[in-house]
Every structure is written in C-alpha cells, then in structure tokens.
Amino acid sequence: MQELVSLIRENAEDVADASGKTALDSKIEKWIAHQPGDLVDSLRAALPEINETHWKEWRAFRQIVGRIGLRSDALRNDLAVMTEELHPSDSRARFYAYLARQDLGDAPSLDELRDDAQLRNERPGDWLQLALSQASPSTLRAEIIKMADRLKANDFVFTIGLIREKYGESFVEWMTELCLAMPFTEALSLANLVDEEYNCGLHSEVLMRHSKLRGDPPDGAAMEPLWESLDEQFKLSILEKA
C-alpha cells in the first residue's frame, strides 16, 4: 500500500522521465497486462492516505481506476461513503473522486450533486459534467438556468457535444435561453463556441435579444454606457462578427 501511495504522490508532483511518463504510468501499464490480486485492497487501504486538498493526487487515483477498468463493489462503496460526506474536502479533488465512482459504475446521483453546493459554486463546469449523465433534459435545463449568472463559456468546452446529444432538435432553443440568462460577455463567448462547432447563428441571437431578458429592450441611450464600458478589442470583435 505504501508503494502505491508513493506512486500517487510522485505522479501528483509531476515527477516524470524525459518522455513525460511517470512511474505510475509504467505501473498502470503492467497492471493492465496483469492485475495483481491485492490491487483493490491496496487502493482501499490507500484512500485515507491521499491528501484531501491535493486534487492531483485524486486525479492520479482516478487514473488507476479508469485506465485499468477496475470493478469492485467494495472500493465503489468506500468512495460513495466518502463523497456523500463531502470528502475529500477540496471540491476539485472531490470531482476526481466522483469520476472514479463513475468509472466503477456508481455515478453520483443528481440528489447527491445538488447537495454538493461547494462543487456547484466553485466549479460549475465540473458539476455540469457530472450532472449531464444523471439528469433528464428538462431537469438539467432548470438546474443550469439557476447557475447561469456564474457560468463561463469555458465551463462548456468539454461538454458542448454531450449537451448537443442530450437536447437534439431543442439544442439551439436551449442554448439561446441559456445565453440570454448568462452575463453578456460570457454569453457572447459561449455563442461563439457553439457557432464555431454547429454554425447555428447563436451569436447574432445574443446580440439582438440579450437585453430583453428582464423586460423591454432599452433604448440606444440606455445601452450606450454598457457599450462604452466594454474593452476596445472586444467591441471590435463583436462588430466584425455582426
């Protein structure tokens, strides 16, 4: 078990050879070819030794579980008990613990994710990635709208394709609603991200409709202070796209 913990810690410190391969990478390759009978027991014993505030250690732990394709009810239950009690204490570290559970066939339920306010508030993109596989389209839509004021376009970089699959023909309607609920600059950035991938004219929709979200569209004079406050390079990019 101590050897395993050492491998996890070295990996977390990015100790690697000239090719970028860590000692843990090499060990995982051997385990994939021939999994030792005591590996699950060693992983279970290692859990209390992993630093609760060092997300890279939890990422390394998740790599072992995911790359080998482990299946263990006992390890899955250990992780479930930990995460239900909001351990590890760091939200990013807990994200990787959730992913390890998912790899073990026990993805956290939407109710669990709702209870994890820290992850939801501090890392909404990670929360969204986990919730995508658990919530119905209508429920997820409502949950994300609640978070819209703190979402950033970067939160969707790894999930936009999954969202497209989940919402199908309603995708453009849903993304328009989301963008109109987000802060203006982030809404435009997300619209650009979607348009680059799917060419659905979302950027123009945001420019035309964002100001209508909370009432009638303001007149030109009311919009002027907002426009003047924007960065010059950002204003130039908007004009070019429009």
Blueprint (SSEs and pairs):
Blueprint: H1 2-12, H2 23-33, H3 39-46, H4 55-68, H5 73-84, H6 91-103, H7 110-115, H8 117-122, H9 124-131, H10 137-147, H11 160-167, H12 171-181, H13 184-198, H14 202-209, H15 220-229, H16 232-241
Helix pairs in contact: 1-4, 2-4, 4-6, 5-6, 12-13, 12-14, 13-14
Q: Could you explain how this protein is built, in words?
A:
The structure is a single chain. The radius of gyration is 22 Å and the shape is elongated. The longest helix is centred in the C-terminal third of the chain and has 15 residues, at 184-198. 27% of the residues are buried. Helix 13 runs antiparallel to helix 14. It starts with a helix and ends with a helix. It has 242 residues and is mainly α. Mean pLDDT is 88; it is low at 216-224. The chain has helices at 2-12, 23-33, 39-46, 55-68, 73-84, 91-103, 110-115, 117-122, 124-131, 137-147, 160-167, 171-181, 184-198, 202-209, 220-229, 232-241.
Percent of residues in helices comes to 55-70%
- Overall residue-averaged pLDDT value: 88
| H/E topology pattern | HHHHHHHHHHHHHHHH
- How many β-strand runs? 0
Alpha-beta content class: mainly alpha
Number of helices: 16
Q: What characteristic shape results from the CA principal axes?
A: elongated
In whole angstroms, the N-to-C terminal distance is 59 Å
**Unreliable residue runs:** 216-224
Strand content: under 5%
Query: Radius of gyration in whole Å, from Cα?
Result: 22 Å
Report the biggest beta sheet as strand number plus sense, adding barrel if it closes.
none
